[in-house]
Amino acid sequence: MLKFEARQNRAAQLHTTTSLAEGGSVTMDIDGHPHLLIDGAYKEGGGQVLRNTFSLSALLGRPIKAFNIRANRNRPGLMAQHLTGIRLVAEMFDGWLDGAELWSREVAFRPGRFVADRKQFTGDTGTAGSATLLIQISLPCLVFAPRETPPQVDYCAMVFKPIVQRMGVEFDVDIERRGFFPLGGGVVHVRTKPVQDTLRPITMCERGKVKTIRIRSFVAGTIPKHVAERMNATARKMITDYLRKADEDQRVSVEEEIVEETDKAAVGNGTGLIITATTTTGCIFGGSALGERGKAAEKVAEEAAASILKDLQEGGCTDEYLQDQLIIFMALAKGTSKIKTGPLSLHTETSIFFTQLLTGATFKVTKADDAVNAYYIQCEGIGFVNPHFQTTPPVVATAPAPTSASVPSSAHPANEEEEEEAME
Question: Keyword annotations for this protein (predicted)?
């Protein structure tokens, strides 16, 4: 396996005097190349701005310069998690980076061609980090690569994967070893298949009835199995109580999995659970939580159950996390996508803004009349064509062999605020 060791670049000596009231759209000349300026303090103002803009910059071949990076966080600038992600994208596209250093608040990126002869890309944060967030920045790049690419990971596999498969995004997730904060040490392998042409649009506007509940609770290290059993029991009671009161179909199937991770399958002590709910129309919701010192097993289960129940009660067709992760794929797809969600999170609002800015896709958000707290997000996608599979390919090389990407794992859910609190 080829270890990812990106070249260190000199600190950015780029000073921006332009005031950007709307987060971006002004260009700046750097070494004779116009770079779109990205204000990292806009809206959500965290690492998600980097994940969206660097992915799209690489795919579209559009240079960018991000400034005010993570300005809305207690410790602004690039943390190891974000630095690894942008270096990973730069390595995939043989890109030029300036300012890509720990705690840097300004980074310029100019993508090149996808490195078609590489068989594997590896991102290692060197600290405890979330595999899900590294997958978020790299997956859009990998599915438009010229060939198969081997990119809290349970959520990614159980909720995100089956939904984006409907759009033509194909990938497999293999958790080799779980890692827990603060030691880290986990490894996840993600193998993708290239999109042959364009992504399909997606429509999810009818929630349907809940038909299957899946509860997976686990313990690792020296934590006794009864902790997982207690988490499972609490979660099951909360979910079944809700289904009974909400007049859902009483023939709901409840699948329970209680796991003791082996020493080989996990590093250190850890506990947690993930709950998924699948409906009769194919919607999938997820809620997860991790244990920590001093937190009772029942409290962990309550957090995970409360998360998924909140999303179910709002009447949408996605949970809070899936809502913002679909935005970039809706923009790249060919045709009109429309999803029904709960209230838009700040992550989603930020994602919509920067995705529109870089792609030219148009989004429209309207209130749903048939639900108390639900909205429709509609997008006219740009129909981005995989350049490696066009009849007359552009200046990008093609190659048939498989490639892979490996990222360090964490059982942490896809919530950057929680992740950053832990890391700080």
Answer: Ligase, Nucleotide-binding
Establish whether 82 is a catalytic residue: no
Q: Kindly state the average pLDDT of the residues 39-48.
A: 88
Residue that is written with structure tokens 């596999």 in the block: 157
pLDDT, tens digit (0-9, with 9 covering 90-100), for 339-359? 999 999 999 999 999 999 999
Q: What are the C-alpha distances in Å from 196 to residues 58, 115, 385?
A: 18, 18, 8
Helices (H), 262-403: 297-313, 320-325, 327-332, 346-359
Total-model pTM:
0.77
Domain extent listing, the chain: 15-129, 210-314, 318-391
Determine which helix (DSSP H) or strand (DSSP E) holds 94, and give its type and residue range. none
| Annotated catalytic residue, options 82, 347, 388, 412 | 347
Paired strand residues for 191: 172
Tell me the CA distances in angstroms from 30 to 34, 51, 96, 106, one per residue in order.
6, 22, 12, 13
Name the CATH superfamily for 210-314.
Answer: RNA 3'-terminal phosphate cyclase, insert domain (3.30.360.20)
Helix (H) or strand (E) holding 71: none
DSSP letters for 14-27: -------TTSEEEE
Residue 161 contacts residue 175 (beta carbons within 8 Å) = no
Distance of alpha carbon 316 from alpha carbon 342, whole angstroms: 5
Of 2-6, 155-159, 326-330, 381-385, give the lowest mean pLDDT range: 2-6
* DSSP notation for 218-249: EEETT--HHHHHHHHHHHHHHHHHHHHHTT--
Q: Of 141, 136, 133, which Cα lies nearest the Cα of 60?
A: 141
CA-derived radius of gyration, the chain: 21
| Sequence-distant (≥ 6) Cβ neighbours of residue 369 within 8 angstroms | none
In Å, how far are 42, 60, 281 from 140, measured between CA atoms? Answer: 22, 11, 26
Topology of the domain covering 15-129:
UDP-n-acetylglucosamine1-carboxyvinyl-transferase; Chain (3.65.10)
